[in-house]
Every structure is written in C-alpha cells, then in structure tokens.
Amino acid sequence: MSGPGFDRYPLWWVLGQNLLFVAFFALGTWAMAYIGPRGLPILYGGFVFVMLCFVLRRELCTHCRYYGGLCGTGWGLWASWLFEEGSGNYERGLKAASVFWVLALLLPIVSVIAALIWRPGLARGIHLLALLILGGAIFLVHRETCRRCQNASECPVSMSKGRIRPTRPPSNG
Fold it and tell me: What is the model's pLDDT at position 160?
C-alpha cells in the first residue's frame, strides 16, 4: 500500500542526511576524548557504529516498508543487504533506538560542556557550537524526512504531525 510521501527518497537527500550524522558523530567521538581515558572515544565511536549499522538496522529496518529500498537515510537498502526481511524484533528495536539516540546525541554535548567548565578554551567553545548546530540540523532534516515518509502514520516514533505529498517526484540526478 502506497500513501502520501516519497516511494523512494532522492539520493542527494540520503547522502546529505548521512553527512550530517557522520559529521556529528565524528565530532562526538572527538568530544569524548576531553573527559575520559583514550579508550572512551573508541568505545563511543564503536557504540555508534554498531548500533547504527547493525543492531538498529536488523531490529527496525527489516520491518519497514522501505526495506530493500531507498528510505530517507538509505538504511532500508543497507538492512536488506545484511538481514532477512522481518528478522528483527521491532519492539526491542524501538527501545534500543530510544536509548541510543539519547546517549549518542547528549553524551558528546555534555562532554564538551564539562571540558569547558574544567578547562575553558576557544576550540572547545567552537566544538560545542558545532555539535549544537549539527544536532539542530539533524533534528530539522530528520523531521522533514518523517513528513515525507510513507510510514509516518504507522510509525510510533515519527517526528511528523502530518504528512505531505511531494510537489514533484524526487530526482536522483
């Protein structure tokens, strides 16, 4: 069943959204070095990588109508290369995603704030500002992605209050 929204997101949309994620999580990994031992950034980066690339893809994406296709993040296509359709546990995935996104977004910001309190500096201030700007951009872009998603009405974690029909078909060119 096809509803309002994109059947297939434009490639530029997918690449742009993932670029925001990569930039935030790279700065987030660096931020962890301010507050802990050398292994902490590796632990944070590994946590983000495993959760985003494998755990959440199996648990959530294998149940999505975009499974095997180009969703707003491209993760439905990625999941189809790794896991069989329906192989994950959707309820467990929702819980894991909630914990993941809170930790992955807030830990770096809190780390830089703590570092600024302990040892103020311009570079750390810029680092914090960059994380806040990227975090805000991720929120806004992902909210718009949800608005254009065909799953929005059924998704319990959709950021969309209402869906829109695209005014023109997406283009990957």
Answer: 76
